Amino acid sequence: MVERHHAEDPLARLRERTPVLGMLREAGAEDRPFEGATIGVSSHLEPKTGIFIETLRDAGAEVLCTPNDPGSVHGDVVSHLDAQSGITAFAAPEMSEADLDRAHRDLLDREPDLLATDGAELLAKCHADPELSTESVVGCAEQTTSGVSRARAMADDGVLAVPVFAVNHTPMKHWFDNVHGTGESALTNVMLSTNTVLAGRTVVVAGYGYVGRGVATKARALGADTVVTEVDSRKAIRAHMDGHRVMPMDEAAEIGELFVTATGNCHVIRERHVRKMNDGAMLCNVGHRDIEVAIGELADAATDVRDVEEGITRYSLADGRTIDLLAEGKMVNLTGPYSQGHPAAVMDTTFAAMVLALRELVETDGLDAGVHPLPERLDEDVARLKLDALGVEIDSLTDLQQRYLDAWQRDEIV
Ligand SMILES: NC(=O)c1ccc[n+]([C@@H]2O[C@H](COP(=O)([O-])OP(=O)(O)OC[C@H]3O[C@@H](n4cnc5c(N)ncnc54)[C@H](O)[C@@H]3O)[C@@H](O)[C@H]2O)c1
């Protein structure tokens, strides 16, 4: 019989599955780009983030970490990190929103040099609160769509005082993390927590951006009948051409069995939609905040609200129908009962891009305050390292091909 050992190190297993971060960790331990710098990390404190934090620490940083969502804190990961030198966790499982706010302030009071955020909460807070300051902050790397749009809104308002790298807006992030990572991890969580088969079910996906496209594509691959709702005509056409039915939420509400919101917006599913839904319809969200389903309106419409299973809140309506809300409307892949966030192979590249963005911030002089694209060469570095880790080789352009592509009088070349 195989003897099983309880892992004392909750990150050990996933370290093997994050080879790109492993390579950056080795390189960082040698050239110590963050020596003397303090980095404030606000993210889902789960194992992959733990490996990211260790990578920064091994590259010389003092790392302060805090959750961006109280629902996604893994207690064993926090204890493991907090016990290490060079890492301080401002976190605990079961934090209230007030605890989270306090933790963010305590972290910012330590005047970090760099911020690494998922949702831009630390960034917004040090700009908005008169008791806090942005003075120490050299720059910020932001890894999700909602955080980048928030940073852009700060720039548009003329308040953004530091440079921010939009790590989310790179091909390596969009194509892999948002599409595959969220798509697979969200549906896995829905199926496990509700014991539901998706084949043959009507799945309505609100928002056909990177995340929504991933969710809809994966749901259809599992045999679901997929419906997409959108507000952007080009995304709607894209969904149509990809083979999904496209319609307004008012119509989709009548036929959906599972609803997944992926818009980064608010109040996408409202009371008027719920009134039309089938008995037993399930609602969940993968967008950044728990405001895509108008939960207050749902509660007002219900005669009874109770948790029927871990991660499932049942709203009973006056006419006898019930509607199930999963993971309290928070990101179902990160806060549901079986949630492990994105697979390690996906976060490997996202966090690698975050490490390179932070390195770029300390190594580049004179970056203006504002939201900047991550330089393409860094995104390509991440892709190259990932291919190396996978053992996949690709072709390269010949001199002739490069000259042909660079020329406008191409007949002279070939
Ligand atoms: N759960 C996760 O692990 C995870 C991972 C990555 C991103 N996210 C979050 O998911 C959300 C979406 O990210 P994305 O990269 O797909 O963004 P995106 O901007 O590419 O897509 C959002 C789409 O929603 C559409 N939309 C906006 N309001 C709508 C409405 N009322 N009805 C229907 N459609 C609407 C937009 O037109 C857009 O096409 C963001 O909040 C992002 O932060 C979550």
UniProtKB/TrEMBL annotation:
<dbReference type="Pfam" id="PF05221">
    <property type="entry name" value="AdoHcyase"/>
</dbReference>
<feature type="binding site">
    <location>
        <position position="333"/>
    </location>
    <ligand>
        <name>NAD(+)</name>
    </ligand>
</feature>
<protein>
    <submittedName>
        <fullName>Adenosylhomocysteinase</fullName>
    </submittedName>
</protein>
<dbReference type="InterPro" id="IPR015878">
    <property type="entry name" value="Ado_hCys_hydrolase_NAD-bd"/>
</dbReference>
<dbReference type="InterPro" id="IPR020082">
    <property type="entry name" value="S-Ado-L-homoCys_hydrolase_CS"/>
</dbReference>
<dbReference type="GO" id="GO:0006730">
    <property type="term" value="P:one-carbon metabolic process"/>
</dbReference>
<dbReference type="InterPro" id="IPR000043">
    <property type="entry name" value="Adenosylhomocysteinase-like"/>
</dbReference>
<feature type="binding site">
    <location>
        <begin position="209"/>
        <end position="214"/>
    </location>
    <ligand>
        <name>NAD(+)</name>
    </ligand>
</feature>
<dbReference type="GO" id="GO:0005829">
    <property type="term" value="C:cytosol"/>
</dbReference>
<keyword id="KW-0554">One-carbon metabolism</keyword>
<feature type="binding site">
    <location>
        <position position="230"/>
    </location>
    <ligand>
        <name>NAD(+)</name>
    </ligand>
</feature>
<dbReference type="InterPro" id="IPR042172">
    <property type="entry name" value="Adenosylhomocyst_ase-like_sf"/>
</dbReference>
<comment type="similarity">
    <text>Belongs to the adenosylhomocysteinase family.</text>
</comment>
<keyword id="KW-0520">NAD</keyword>
<dbReference type="GO" id="GO:0004013">
    <property type="term" value="F:adenosylhomocysteinase activity"/>
</dbReference>
<dbReference type="InterPro" id="IPR036291">
    <property type="entry name" value="NAD(P)-bd_dom_sf"/>
</dbReference>
<feature type="binding site">
    <location>
        <position position="342"/>
    </location>
    <ligand>
        <name>NAD(+)</name>
    </ligand>
</feature>
<dbReference type="GO" id="GO:0033353">
    <property type="term" value="P:S-adenosylmethionine cycle"/>
</dbReference>
<feature type="domain" description="S-adenosyl-L-homocysteine hydrolase NAD binding">
    <location>
        <begin position="178"/>
        <end position="339"/>
    </location>
</feature>
<dbReference type="Pfam" id="PF00670">
    <property type="entry name" value="AdoHcyase_NAD"/>
</dbReference>
